[in-house]
Backbone:
């Protein structure tokens, strides 16, 4: 019992670790390489919850039998915990290429063994595996072999099911970089090393009517870090929740400050909201509190959501959007055209603005498919009573194409880059002075 898993009767972690120690010692003598397979079941946790633990146990027992049927007599199959299994294969080859080839053959045999669905009495279950593989050879250390197999397994998360992934040293360095960035980002949240830049949005008269709040990380060594380097990681690690809240609150404070300055008092401020952030039960209350605490006018705040939100529980999304809409806040649908919007759903959401993704704007005029998509988005948005804004407008030709097709609000380098609030105020002042000096104003 000390060395075996009670459910499947397989060796447990302690036993396979001992075996790996012996295998490494044998490899020192023979010079042969072996492999450690780390295996788990795709979506097992969800299945265990939805179907119950008894079904989960049946699956684990059947999987254990199938793994054993594929393994050679000299291999060891073990169960770590939950749906995590290991197979230790010794003497796979005298060099990495040969060992890799033989490990792949084993992977094929495992895949074949899973082709027949499992009979679970009530239904048939097609079980998909994820497999991480680390080759090993003396003088590797047991802990390193385990860690490398686990990293390889993690890598399969981004691939399709039934995938087998070998550890490669690049994974290690990427993993380390990711961990360093994550540690730094955690500190950045604690010490609030962020600031917000604001990028102008102009109307058909080229007057600034709004700004988009874009976060920057003021890194103590690397200077201003753009959001694409850290927002995806922040989303994975849930740090997006405190970061997103900070942006929301800071943008509201800025709105209130601008209320006192005539040139800025009418500016709409758009704030990007991540799906995870929106999904929080307390999100509506957070928006309300940010408005109340700052005293900002709700009608000047716009929240930018992305289409991926529509893949979530739509009733919940619509309900929350309506509550926020009742506060007076508006909504924009960011990066439109790149996601998976159901057009039928689009009409049911309280959205005020569609934002054409800059990947389409980039290719107009010229690329006919993007011209057609852009025209269609504009027509659809207007037809549904929404304002349509184009992002990433960089050239006069793009501007003209958009204007000729009925898109009247623009954001992009042609009209201004994201800048700090001070610089934005200075730019607005400068623009006003130029306007006053223009011949038509002097007449
Ligand atoms: P986004 O919301 O689509 O923001 C527009 C991005 O396009 C900004 O990049 C902006 O600087 C860039 N851009 C604007 N005009 C042009 C142009 O003419 N040409 C080109 N090539 N690019 C232009 P930025 O500031 O690097 O932000 C990137 C993304 O990071 C944003 O894309 C948004 O998805 C995310 N992000 C930024 N701030 C926040 C935030 O506070 N919260 C969340 N959740 N995401 C944020
Ligand atoms: Mg945006
Ligand atoms: Mg965008």
Residues:
């Amino acid at each position: 019992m000390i060395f075996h898993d009670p459910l499947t009767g397989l060796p447990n972690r302690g036993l396979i670790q001992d075996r790996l120690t012996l295998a490494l010692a044998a490899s020192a003598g023979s010079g042969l390489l072996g492999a450690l397979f780390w295996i788990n079941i795709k979506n097992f946790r969800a299945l265990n919850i939805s179907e119950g633990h008894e079904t989960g146990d049946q699956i684990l027992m059947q999987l254990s039998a199938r793994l054993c049927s594929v393994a050679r007599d000299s291999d060891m199959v073990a169960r770590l915990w939950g749906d995590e299994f290991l197979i230790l294969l010794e003497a796979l080859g005298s060099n990495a290429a040969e060992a890799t080839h033989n490990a792949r053959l084993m992977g094929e045999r495992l895949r074949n063994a899973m082709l027949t669905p499992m009979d679970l009495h009530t239904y048939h279950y097609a079980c998909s595996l994820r497999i991480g593989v680390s080759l090993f050879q003396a003088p590797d250390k047991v802990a390193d072999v385990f860690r490398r197999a686990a990293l390889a397994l993690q890598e399969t998360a981004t691939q399709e099911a039934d995938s087998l992934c070998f550890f490669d040293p690049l994974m290690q360095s990427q993993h380390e970089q990711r961990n360093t960035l994550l540690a730094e980002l955690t500190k950045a949240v604690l010490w609030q090393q962020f600031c917000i830049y604001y990028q102008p949005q102009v109307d058909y008269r080229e007057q600034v009517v709004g700004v988009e709040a874009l976060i920057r990380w003021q890194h103590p060594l690397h200077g201003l870090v753009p959001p694409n380097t850290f927002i995806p990681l922040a989303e994975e690690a849930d740090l997006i929740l405190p970061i997103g809240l900070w942006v929301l609150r800071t943008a509201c404070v800025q709105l209130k400050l601008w209320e006192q300055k005539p040139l800025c008092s009418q500016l709409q401020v758009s704030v990007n909201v991540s799906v995870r952030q929106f999904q929080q039960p307390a999100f509506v209350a957070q928006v309300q509190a940010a408005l109340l605490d700052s005293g900002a006018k709700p009608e000047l705040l716009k929240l930018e959501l992305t289409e991926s939100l529509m893949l979530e529980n739509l009733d919940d999304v619509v309900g929350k959007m309506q509550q926020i809409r009742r506060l007076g806040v508006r909504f924009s649908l960011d990066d439109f055209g790149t996601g998976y919007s159901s057009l039928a759903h689009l009409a049911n959401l309280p959205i005020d603005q569609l934002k054409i993704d800059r990947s389409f704007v980039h290719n107009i005029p010229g690329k006919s498919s993007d011209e057609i998509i852009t025209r269609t988005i504009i027509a659809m948005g207007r037809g549904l009573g929404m304002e349509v804004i184009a992002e990433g407008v960089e050239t006069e030709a793009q501007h003209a194409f958009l204007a000729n097709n009925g898109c009247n609000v623009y954001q992009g380098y042609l009209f201004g880059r994201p800048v700090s609030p001070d610089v934005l105020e200075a730019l607005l002042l400068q623009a006003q002075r130029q306007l006053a000096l223009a011949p038509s104003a002097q007449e």
